[in-house]
Each structure stands twice: as structure tokens, then as C-alpha cells.
Amino acid sequence: MGLSPALGRLLFLLWLPRICSGFVNMENCTNYRLQFERVFSVPGDVAMLNSTLVSLEVFDFRTIPYNITWYKTGQEISNSSSQILVLKETLWFLNITLADAGEYVTVLRTPSRCYMQSTKLVVELPAAGECGRPRKAFQTLTNEAWETLSCPLQDYIDKLDSYNITSTTKWYKGCDPIFVETDETDIYSYRERTKLTVKKVGFENSGDYTCTLTFILGGVAGSVSETIEATVRDEYNYVPQVHKPANVTIKAEIGSNFTKKCLVFVPGIGMPFVDVCWWVKGQFIYNMDPSERIYTSEQGSWSENANSTKKGMWLERSLTISELKAEDFNLNYTCRAHSSRGIPEGYFTLLPADPNPMAPIGSVFGIMTVLFVISVTIYYTFRIDIVLWVRRAFPVFYKNKDLDGKLYDAYVAYPQPYALGFSEEVEKFALHTLPQVLEKTCDYKLFIAGRDCLAGQAMVDSVEENIEASRRFLLLYNASTFTSKRHTSSTGSNNNNISKNSDGSDKIESNRDSSMSLDGSGNVYTDTRQQLECVAAMHRALLEGSLKVVLVELEEITPAQLALFPESVRHLRKKQGAVCWWKNFRTSRQRWRTCTKSGEDEERGQKDSQPSSSLSPSSRFWKEMRYHMPVRGKRTVYPEKTALLNLR
Fold first, then answer.
1. Which one of 138, 181, 454, 483 has the largest count of C-beta atoms within 10 Å of its C-beta?
2. CA–CA dist 389, 386 (Å, integer)
3. Residue 146's Cα: distance from chain center in Å?
4. Which of these three, 95, 123, 151, is where a domain ends?
């Protein structure tokens, strides 16, 4: 712990008589020994010996009082002689002689400590015929460049300035003084007090240059000189040019790897003495270890193309940040090119990158795409349930079908008895199963051929009128409905043409390619009814677009059987599909097939093939049927015409 200033002054006053009593033993002083630098002088010059003990590295001279004494060969040096001047830590020789050469000891005493140091003065005679000093400093001038020589007397100037003593500087080349004119064409010019600029250096500018400092100290006029031996080298370099970075702003993403090059061009010839370095937050980045997060590369260099008129050397050093953090942003990263010509620099400012607008857009688009795919998948998987729920929950969205003039929700066509492709299972489905669910449970109104036909009504008129009065056409078929051999017909110009079959019966031909066979009593074969129904329905569905046909497939159809179907049925089946009744009964990979059964086997078959679940409106088949049926409104009393048509 240091002494307070007041206590230090008190101890110094008590200790001062010991100092004044003369030379004391210096064995207990801390010895800093002989200074490495010698002071060289010539007879007649001024020489300055300066002690380095007054330094914070030795003691705190700002708060602790001290006293300095100079000695030579054990004798204290005083200001009694006009040739020597002692100013604290500085010993001045105002007119050097050869006898002044030797070692001089500085003793610095504080109230509690003692320090000592030696300084050597060397006095030499100049060589005969030379105007310069024996000891010379060496400096280099670059050919064809503007160069500056620095006078080595800066320490003298600084010390005299601390005394507020004015000094003047004069330059010589050899023995001739250098006169500096204001004319810009002059070879030399002064730069500051201790620098001499040589414009457009040539080899003739080599030689000895002497700078002489003149001043008055202690009432004595004196001077001190130093000589510089200047050599001109053929290699030269101009001020470096920092090409990159060019004071720009760079944006990067946090967490990314970042690298930026510093590119410097040094005009001239030969290898330049230029050090390229990176600087950030007031500190140089010296680290070149790639394992560190922030590091620089080694300085690279290459010459400009020999064919280029611009001669020089390119220098490069890269700055790399392996992982950008928040602390690395909003900072200026500066690249500096250190050279004797100057220290040009360029910088870039690192900012965080703007949010990528495509990222949220892409995310939203991706989410929307996923939602769309999910929605489409859900819709196609549950579309029937969704549509039926919407119809039931929001009937206001749909028009009241009771006001469209139609009498029936659907016209049901199926192979009639004695017709080719007739099946008791099909008939039972048409006359019992279908009405039980659609009419009794779901309250639809059906027209079923064979059940709702009026007695004595012409078949063609019945088919035309009742299809026209229906909103849907349900075509029930199995594998043999369209694959049995059909009658051939001849084309007539009227709606119904009568010809003779080979058995003598009459054959009625329709202009819609439908035919009806009559026996000798005038009865019509019922297989031609379905043909007429199909032709009339397909005409309205495919050509007019006024009727929707629903294909009800009661039995699984093979590709070979499908190939024998009418082209219109195949086209409609491919376009909109069919409602498959047989899928309700396919279990354990067994396919339900229609076959003629009798007695106990038939009852058991009916029991197995039509379980109670198949009559539930919530089963898959009946949901599909309801999906294809028209949307029902609140029904009112049917018109009188409807009641008459319903008479059996």
C-alpha cells in the first residue's frame, strides 16, 4: 500500500539532510544497470543523457517525492560548470569534449527506496574531410516515389519542447545545405519539423543527409546533429488501395457461416511491406486457428498480370465467422492495410437478414396444401355422409322439388318376369327391398314398373309419361341383364312399326331402336319394356341432360360381361360409377351371386344374403342411394293427376 502524499513529504523533509551531506553508500539501491542504448556525440556538439528511472514501471512518481543525483566515477555532478546542466533525470553536455566520454550513474531516492542506473556516453572524432557524423542512421528511398527522411533527433525536440525552448532544424546533403523553396518544382520540401520529403526519388538522391538542431539552453547556444545514410532501391510502392470491403452493408442469417475477403492492391514494383489485418470493436483479430469461431486466414499475395499497365501486388486476408450470433450483428468490421505510406481502410456493417417472405408464404402454402389434401381425402372418403348431413341440417339451401311438376322421385326399371336376364332376387329387390327402405323409411316416391303401371295403358306411352314425371331413373341390373341375346329389329320411320317374327307374332319397332314382341293374342313380352326404358332414359341423360340415371348393380360384373353391355350403359358406368348392392354381402372374399333357389335353400339364402343390417338406411349402400336421390322438401298433398296415376 503506497504512502499518502502528506506523509511522504514529511518523511522526505526528515530524510533530506542525509541527501545533502554528500555521496552515500549505494549498495542498497536497486540497480537497473547500464542502459542498452548508448549516446554518441562528437566534440563541440550538445549531448543529452536521459534516465529512464522516472517511470511508473519503477515507482509512482506522481504521488511519491523523489530526488535525482548524477555521478561520474563516484563523484556527484553539479551545475557549477557552464558546460554541464543537470535538469532532474536529464544531464546536458553543452559543449562535448573527448574527456566527457564514460559512464554516468543516476541515483533516484524516495523516502523508502533507492534506484540506480548507468548510461554510457561515447565521444568520437569525425573522419577527416567528412561533414557528417561517424555514427549514421540508415534509411531507404524508393525509386520514382515521393519519400520522406526522418531526423533521428525527435527525443531532443520533445525534451526542449517540455522546457518551452524554441529550436530550429536545418538539413544538409553531404556538406551542402538544403534550401527549401516554395516552388512546387523544387526537389525537397519540409514535412513537419523533423521530416524532409524528396519528390520523385531518383538514384542521384542517394547519399548522406544531416539534420542539425539549434537552440539556446541555460544561456548557452548549442546544436546537435545526426547523419542519415540514404540508399535508393529500384523497388517502390505507393499508398495501398483497399478494394474490398468497400464500406457496404451486408446482411446474413443468424447461425450461418460467414466469410468476407479483404482485397488490397499496392501499386508499385516488388514485394510491399504491408500488413493487412481485420479490426472489430477496437481490437485486432489475430487468431488464425480455424477451430475458433472467429478467425482470419493467412495473408495471401499475387502479382498483377505482367501485361497490365497497372503494376503492383494484390494482398488478401479473409475473415470467417463459423456461426453467426446475435452479438456479431450491428458492428463495423474494418480491414486495414498498414504501411509506411499510410493506413487506408475499408469496412462493412453486418446486419441480420430480413425475414424471408417466401418462408411464411411457403409455410402457409404447405399448410394449405396439406389441409387441402386432407380435406379432399376426407371429402372423398366421407362425401356421402357430409352431403347427407348438409341436406338434413340445411334444407333451406335446396329448392322444394314438390314444385317442379314431377310426380315421382325415381323411376325404377328392372328385368321383368319372362324377360331375358330376369331373376327372382332382382324382382324381390325391386318390389320389396327398395320400396321398404326408400319409400317407407326415407319417404321417397317411386314408380316401379310392374307395380305402378295402369291397366290397359300402352307400354310406350306409360314408359314415356312416367319417366317424364320422375326426377331420377334407377336402372337395376345383374350380370345377365344385358348379356343375353337381343332381338334384331328393322328401322321404321314411325314411332312404332309392326313386323312379323319368325314364329308369326307381331314385332313392334320404336324409332329409338327399342323393340317389343307381341304374341298372337297381342300381349307384349316384358323383356322389351326394359329395353324401351333404357333407350328413353339414356336419351334424356346423355343427349338432353334432363334426367339423372342411377345404375344399381345387383351383382358383381366381370370385364368380359361388361364388354357385352350396351355402349351407353358402359359409358355412364365409367363416367359416374354404379351403386353396388353386392358389396353389402361380400365377406371373407366371397362374392354374392344371384341364383335360382327353392324351398328351404332359398329361405336360408335370403336370410344370409339380406341381413337386417342391409335394410338400415345408415348402411353404406342406402347412403349412396340417398346421395343420388333428389333432395326432398316438405311434401304437400299430391296433385289429383298423381292420385289417378297411382291407381292400380
1. 483
2. 5
3. 49
4. 123
Asked whether residue 497 is assigned to any structural domain, the reply reads no
Q: What is the CA radius of gyration of the chain?
A: 60
Kindly state whether residue 496 falls inside one of the protein's structural domains.
Answer: no
Residue 229 belongs to domain with CATH number: 2.60.40.10
Contact status, residue 98 vs residue 121, Cβ threshold 8 Å: no
Q: Is residue 14 part of a domain?
A: yes
Q: What is the pLDDT of residue 287?
A: 87
The label of the residue with cell 332382382 reads 426
**CA 475 to the chain's CA centroid:** 61
What pLDDT sits at residue 2?
Answer: 42
Residue 399: CA count within 13 A, CB half-sphere: 6
Three-class secondary structure of residue 470 per DSSP: strand
d(CA 43, CA 121): 12
**SS3 for 461?**
helix
Distance in angstroms (rounded) separating the CA atoms of residues 188 and 141: 13
- Residues of the domain holding 70: 5-123
Distance, CA of 309 to CA of 301 (rounded, Å): 19
562 and 481 Cβ atoms separated by less than 8 Å: no
Find the DSSP H helices in 150-280: 154-162
Burial classification of residue 306, based on how many CB atoms lie within 10 Å of its CB (0-12 exposed, 13-18 middle, 19 or more buried): exposed
Residue ranges of the chain whose pLDDT lies below 70: 1-27, 80-81, 181-185, 305-308, 418-421, 455-456, 483-528, 585-614, 632-648
In angstroms, rounded to a whole number, what is the distance separating the alpha carbons of residues 557 and 580? Answer: 10
Nearest Cα to 135, choosing from 36, 232, 42? 42
Sign of the C-alpha dihedral computed for residues 64, 69, 73 and 74 taken in this order: negative
Same domain assignment for residues 100 and 142: no
Per the structure, the count of domains in the chain is 4
> What distance in Å separates the CA atoms of residue 415 and residue 531, rounded to the nearest whole number?
9
What is the spatial distance between Cα 477 and Cα 276, in angstroms, rounded to a whole number? 92
Task: Supply the pLDDT for residue 113.
Answer: 93
pLDDT at 420: 67
Determine the Cα–Cα distance for residues 337 and 347; give it in Å rounded to an integer.
Answer: 12
The pLDDT score that the predictor gives to residue 490 is 32
Alpha helices in 422-543 (DSSP H): 424-428, 434, 459-468, 527-538
Same domain membership, residue 271 and residue 213: no
**Rounded CA separation 59/66 (Å):** 10
Of 219, 234, 249, which residue is a domain's last? 234
Based on the fold, state whether residues 574 and 434 are members of the same structural domain: yes
